[in-house]
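Deliverable D4.2, example record:
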Amino acid sequence: MSSCNSGTDDFEKWICNINDICGPFLASPLGDRFSGSVEKVGGSLNMSKVNILGADLYRTPKEIQKSGVPDFFCVFQIRGRSLVEQAGNRSSLTSGDVVLVDSALPFRFSFQESSQQISLILPRQIVERILNLSRVELGVKIPADSHIARFASKLVVEASRHENLDPEESGAILDSLATLIKPSVLKSVRSSESYDKVFMAASEFVKDNLGEPGLNAPMVASHIGVSVRSLYRAFAGDSMTFSDYVKTQRLEMCADYIKANNGRLNLTEVVYRYGFGSPSYFSTAFKGRFGITPSDFKKRCAEN
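Output generated by the structure prediction step:
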């Protein structure tokens, strides 16, 4: 049973329930709409079903210190969409996708749309026994259209419906799941060498040229000496598109620039300084990333 006070508002009650069931987390609202619920499922499996709209859910080093054994979360996106970030990787999850995160490292989930997930704790000793920890790729989704994601999701969704699983059955399910996802969560040699080098070179060039309105894939590929196809593959290996990466970097830089000037600047200057085509596009993209309009963000920075 939850120890949360029934008198608290919906958001505080939800994060309190998250902490009771899933362990220490922080959360912050996104935008004006929020709804959330969490329930334990799966009997003796350490598994929960979470519904969220309009919130960030994350762990910092402080929450990690509060938690016990640093196990892994194997997260199954049941419906809706979410974003996950860990170890420099950022993935957009849609229905059927699966992702592995390490509770010993900071990570963040963002839920700007109505979303449902099943989160299963995968004990560290199982991951160490079945997987090679030094090669586990964290925060990178196993896509829904892969056979592994389909089989793993069916296994976990079915297990979540049974409250009478005994410890032996639960242990067999955990071993089976770790074995099943192994090929998808281990870094390939090709990815860790050639495509990682392309990604690093491209990301450095992008960050140095964010103000260029014509910044695009052919320009970057030509500068670093690779084909556009290789450039796209390098970013796909990090579970993102090249255009999404550029947009995210521009938005992060804009937010930092507004903060550095304490909100005392003309937003039109920000729009064109960082290569956005129009104020309206910038406003839509900024709110999609941070859950707040640039004008409101500017006011908040000026007040602090």
